[in-house]
Amino acid sequence: MPDLVSPLGVLLLWAVFGYFLGSVPFGVLITRAAGLGDVRAIGSGNIGATNVLRTGSKGAAAATLLLDGGKGAVAVLLARALAAEDAAQVAGFAAFLGHCFPIWLRFQGGKGVATFLGVLLAVAWPVGIAACLTWLATAFITRISSLAALVAAVLAPVWAVSLGWGAVAVLGIGLAALVLWRHSPNIARLRAGTEPRIGRR
User: Fold this and answer.
1) What is residue 199's predicted lDDT score, i.e. its pLDDT?
2) What is the pLDDT of residue 196?
3) Where are the alpha helices (DSSP H) in 56-168?
């Protein structure tokens, strides 16, 4: 963890900001704007880029991926610029929580993979790049998005320590734990051999 230098009130302020920024459901907004219907009514029902891809629109999926990752990164970068590193990590974690549990969708949000990667890229870009490459390699080999997310999440704290970003390891562990929890149904399907592959509607 970084040194705690910000007053509690400042940390709470950035937590609230991060949460509300993270809670913007870009997957829902983009698919509706594109006339693709409600993404929650297709595939897995998830609001993330992988499920948006099941609408058949690669553009909508790419936009969702970038915006979901971007909101995590923006929360971190703004907090770092206007406060301190402890506030940046708090804002990033809160943005992740906002994506997973958005108040606008009755706390039924996404699984947070893009936001997780966006937060890591902004907090410690070498760790974020390592996590992204882990996701890409696993997805390329297995064609299973959830498995790629799980491997990237589990290895994120390992990358943080091995790349010399020990202060990010606790954040990485917290994010990884929530990614695994949010993927509980996927883990069950992986064990049963019924998890769908990338691109399958």
Assistant:
1) 56
2) 83
3) 58-82, 85-100, 113-123, 125-142, 145-162
- Give the whole-angstrom CA distance, residue 8 versus residue 81: 18
For the chain, give me the number of helices (H) and strands (E)? 10, 0
DSSP category for residue 57: -
Could you say which DSSP state residue 167 is in?
G
CA distance 163 to 91: 23
**φ and ψ of 133, to 5 deg:** -65, -35
Residue 51 — pLDDT band, cuts 50, 70, 90? confident
Spell 60-83 as b/e; 16+ CB within 10 A means b: bbebbbebbbbbbbbbbbbbbeeb
CA distance 98 to 160: 23
CA gap 174, 16 in Å, rounded = 18
Q: Given a cut of 70, is residue 99 above it in pLDDT?
A: yes
Return mean pLDDT, the chain: 92
Average pLDDT (118-127) is 97
Closest listed residue to residue 136, CA positions, set 181, 198, 52? 198
Which amino acid is residue 52, in one-letter code? Answer: V
Nearest-angstrom CA–CA distance, 113 and 111: 6
pLDDT surpassing 90 at residue 122: yes
Please tell me the number of Cα atoms within 13 Å of 82 on its side-chain side.
12
Question: Which token pair is 57?
Answer: 């629109």
